[in-house]
């Protein structure tokens, strides 16, 4: 399916900063309402969406992203440029500038994840989506994740890592999935064949699946979604990498299905780095 390039640009142009996320939240509420999705907001203003076309679904796949960035609330003018990916190849990219022509930080972390979730919501028949607030200062939104919403989630995928090769296996020492599981075998096959054969499993400082894994017993994974130089004014987004992340997420969910992929991490597991 052809990707919605205009939607990606629209999302990247929205100024949003931790605890100043109204423009992004309002955009999502309008988008979800216009397209007829079933959703609700909690007291934190996290957004929860459910799409169900099969009444017999017992467990839902879930995808998540966060609605804040670290950047100031400024006008973001999107420019199309050729910029390097992780292999040093120049690729079609998007970068943000203020009205004075200075780089302003485009906020691909995690607007690329927001875009990916919306694209998957269009394409998959049964899916839950959570958009969490205030991730950048400590996962405040996901720490208050709605327990009823997640009670029938089978596994969760997040799109919140830089570049085009990183996969989170641990977050802040919390193990997200087991390598001895069907979940890992399917994910690794898709990541190798569709995402990047040079993908590397690493420990991630933190993102929302870190908070979710401490609250719930389903497997989680997070992988790169095409933003570069994150948390700087010179951040940019490589469009091909974002689209590949959407493709990877879709294929992963289609192969994992609507099943429960349980994982309870061992206690006192030390922080590790897997390559």
Describe the structure.
The chain is built from eight helices and twelve strands. The protein has about 280 residues and is an alpha/beta fold. The protein has a single domain, classed as Aminopeptidase (3-Layer(aba) Sandwich). A hairpin with a 2-residue loop joins strand 8 (about 165-170) and strand 9 (about 175). The protein is globular.
What's a concise summary of this model?
The protein is an alpha/beta fold and 275 residues long. The chain has helices at 5-12, 22-34, 108-123, 140-143, 147-150, 182-195, 208-215, 239-256; strands at residues 38-41, 47-52, 60-66, 77-84, 90-97, 126-132, 153-162, 166-171, 174-175, 200-204, 219-228, 236-238.
Topology:
Layout: H1 5-12, H2 22-34, E1 38-41, E2 47-52, E3 60-66, E4 77-84, E5 90-97, H3 108-123, E6 126-132, H4 140-143, H5 147-150, E7 153-162, E8 166-171, E9 174-175, H6 182-195, E10 200-204, H7 208-215, E11 219-228, E12 236-238, H8 239-256
Parallel strand pairs: 3-6, 3-7, 7-11, 8-10
Antiparallel strand pairs: 1-2, 2-6, 4-5, 5-12, 8-9, 8-11, 11-12
Helix pairs in contact: 1-3, 3-8, 6-8
The third-level CATH topology is Aminopeptidase
Total helix count?
A: 8
From the alpha carbons, calculate the radius of gyration and give it in angstroms: 17 Å
Q: Output mean pLDDT.
A: 95
User: How far is it from the N-terminal to the C-terminal residue, by CA?
Assistant: 32 Å
CATH class value: Alpha Beta
For the largest beta-sheet, the strand count, sense and barrel status come to: 12 strands, mixed
How many domain regions?
Answer: 1
The CATH superfamily label reads: Zn peptidases
**Based on DSSP secondary structure assignment, what is the total number of beta strands?**
12
Query: Ranges with pLDDT <50 over ≥5 residues?
Result: 270-275
């Amino acid at each position: 399916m052809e990707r919605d390039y205009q939607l990606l640009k629209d999302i990247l142009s929205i100024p949003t900063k931790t605890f100043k996320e109204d423009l992004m939240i309002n955009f999502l509420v309008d988008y979800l309402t216009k397209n007829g999705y079933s959703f609700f907001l909690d007291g934190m203003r996290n957004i929860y969406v459910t799409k169900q076309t099969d009444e017999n679904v017992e467990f839902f796949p879930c995808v998540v992203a966060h609605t804040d960035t670290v950047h100031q609330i400024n006008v973001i003018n999107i420019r199309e440029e050729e910029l390097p990916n992780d292999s040093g190849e120049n690729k079609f990219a998007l970068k943000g500038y203020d009205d004075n022509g200075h780089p302003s930080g485009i906020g691909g972390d995690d607007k690329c994840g927001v875009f990916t979730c919306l694209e998957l919501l269009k394409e998959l028949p049964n899916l839950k989506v959570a958009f969490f607030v205030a991730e950048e200062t400590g996962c405040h939104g996901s720490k208050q994740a709605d327990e009823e919403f997640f009670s029938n989630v089978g596994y969760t995928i997040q799109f919140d890592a830089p570049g085009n090769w990183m996969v989170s296996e641990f977050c802040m020492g919390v193990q997200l999935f087991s390598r001895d599981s069907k979940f890992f075998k399917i994910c690794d096959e898709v990541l190798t064949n569709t995402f990047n054969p040079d993908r590397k499993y690493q420990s991630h400082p933190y993102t929302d699946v870190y908070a979710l894994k401490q609250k719930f017993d389903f497997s989680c994974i997070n992988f790169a979604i095409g933003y570069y130089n994150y948390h700087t004014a010179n951040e940019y987004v490589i469009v091909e990498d974002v689209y590949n992340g959407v493709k990877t997420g879709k294929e992963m969910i289609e192969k994992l299905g609507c099943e429960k992929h349980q994982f309870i991490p061992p206690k006192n597991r030390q922080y590790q780095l897997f390559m």
